[in-house]
Amino acid sequence: MRKIHSYLLVILLSTMFFSCKESTFHEGRFFAGGVYATADQLNDGKIVYLEYCVSCHGFEGDGNGVSAKGLFPPPRNFKLGIYKFGNVVAGELPHDKTLHKIIRHGLNGTPMLQWDMSKEQVYNVIQYIKTFAPKAWEGKGKKLGEELVVSKDPYGPSHKSLAVQKGKEVYHLIAQCQSCHRAYASKKELNQISLKVNNEEMTEFDEDMYKIKLQESEHGYKVLPPDFTFHSLRSVGTMKEKPGIKDPERIALNDLYLRLLAGAGGAAMPSWKDVLQDNEIWAVAYYVRYLQTFTKDQGKRKKFLDSIEKN
Fold first, then answer.
1. Considering the entire predicted model, what is its pTM?
2. Cα–Cα dist 187/307, whole Å
3. Sorting pLDDT into bands at 50, 70 and 90, what band is 109?
4. What's the DSSP call for residue 215?
5. Is 178 in contact with 229 (CB distance < 8 Å)?
6. With contact defined as beta carbons under 8 Å apart, do 228 and 219 qualify?
7. Domain 19-137 sits in CATH 1.10.760.10
8. What is the pLDDT of residues 250-266, one digit of tens each?
9. Can you give the residue ranges of every domain in the chain?
10. 61 closest CA partner among 39, 81, 42
11. Are 229 and 211 spatial neighbours (Cβ–Cβ below 8 Å)?
12. What is the pLDDT of residue 244?
């Protein structure tokens, strides 16, 4: 009986091995942005995917791999053709180099790890992943989103305090970020900001303004916006291929600026491009970065949150 079981196991493993090697693609395909992937590249991408990605993202690319249960956030469903961190306006198709960075450097606070692959492996698996969402990706006429770039920082280290204060005002009054995240200012401070910006008192306050609110998403599950004093930010400080930039603080601020500019595809986080002024986006980036300092000291965080909620 043991010999029979061993024989069946060998057959099963052999079948799995040869099915991975079998050519699924017999011709190349055109993808958005004029990218052409040969059949050999797509077949190699499938092999890479089955080795590194399938356990979480699943054989069908739907995010239902054997390791997906219990993971939060769930693995991305590639069949939707929606990407949260694309460095393009939310909802548009990202460029390959952005997907390359995510694969190589991972995403903070998620099961998406850093993968040590060759450039060729990364390129090929990206092209293979696109085949899960042919309506979104395939075709010579499909376009990528406009790649967003970091503008000149109007503040810099010497005006950091000014930027943080300006960011607090934009966050709470102009962008109303607390409607999804939470407020980080006392009612007294909010009233002072309203008097300064709108020349009127703030007399009514949302009873849930100090709570984070679950948001609907296009990814098939609800998303929890981060508490900036507690959670790590998934796309901030992870894409470390920054030519000529070695300062971690500058990298983080640039990443925050880009995330605010782009938004998060398929989530409740909108793109603030052409909605806020550029200096306002930079100010919010500085303010969020300031709030992140509390993640390093939870005692200090508790005192900060207690003080604003009591006033």
1. 0.88
2. 11
3. confident
4. B
5. no
6. no
7. yes
8. 999 999 999 999 999 99
9. 19-137, 157-310
10. 81
11. no
12. 61
